[in-house]
Design goal:
This protein has 145 residues and is an alpha+beta fold. The chain has three helices and six strands. The protein has one domain (4-139): 2-Layer Sandwich (Heat Shock Protein 90), CATH 3.30.565.
Length: 145
């Protein structure tokens, strides 16, 4: 299986890019690097550091909680929606299993979605059009009106 990057989205589409990743720990830093590289030409006004942190958390969750009997991938896509940036992370897990937790200070896990909810304008989870689950976040003010 190879990694896939969509560098040249269709002009009629609001999608700015996409990547397909193996469900392995090495994919988390790869997702950060590729997102930084491929969002840079669009020069977003929102914090790319915040976006890469949230992508890291969501890709990690997708790898940990995605399930399939067949070979599977994690798919990350990013879109321009007016002045906002929307990022989606897809995996073959079950949408009902996505839960925002409020971890205690001594909890070792459970902060990923809490970070996303704290940083992003909004977040959403539900069924993915690829099957499984999608978790997305929206960063408002990414581009001027």
């Amino acid at each position: 299986m190879t990694y896939t990057i969509d560098r040249y989205p269709c002009e009629d589409s609001p999608r700015l890019g996409a990547m397909t990743l193996h469900p392995t720990p090495e994919s988390v830093p790869r997702a950060r690097r590729w997102f930084r590289k491929f969002i840079a030409p669009y020069d977003p006004l929102c914090s790319v550091d915040d976006c890469t942190l949230m992508i890291s958390e969501l890709v990690t969750n997708a790898i940990l909680y995605g399930r399939s009997d067949d070979e599977w991938v994690v798919r990350v896509e990013w879109y321009r929606e007016g002045t906002s940036l929307r990022v989606e992370v897809h995996n073959p897990g079950f949408p009902a299993s996505v839960q925002l937790r409020r971890p205690d200070a001594d909890d070792a896990h459970g902060r990923g979605l809490f970070l996303v909810a704290s940083i992003a304008e909004s977040w959403h989870s539900g069924p993915s059009r690829f099957g499984g689950t999608v978790v997305s976040f929206l960063m408002s003010g990414a581009w001027p009106a």
